[in-house]
Amino acid sequence: MDWLAKYQAVIVCAEKIVRIHWGNETLIIHGDVPGAAPVARAPYRLAPSEMKELAEQLKELSDKGFIRPSSSPWGTPFLFVKKKDGSFRMCIDYWELNKLT
User: Fold this and answer.
1) Of 35, 40, 67, 72, which is the most buried if we count CB atoms within 10 A?
2) Is the entire prediction scored with pTM above 0.70?
């Protein structure tokens, strides 16, 4: 989340576009893959502590306006990796989605 703020990333869900300011340029990433069928993988199992962390991180991301509820047919699983300080880092598994690009 700090990275998104640092680079003033703008995610436009309705247009499936991400804009990232990089120096004096703006990188624009388009999310549509022409002709691709939606990829949706089942979520990984989470421990109760990870479920709690998930709720907290999703609330924080939603409160900051980075995410919103969606009914998209696209989906990818994620997992949590414990950092040295005991906090969790959310890692998104883009493996199936990356195969399309």
Assistant:
1) 67
2) no
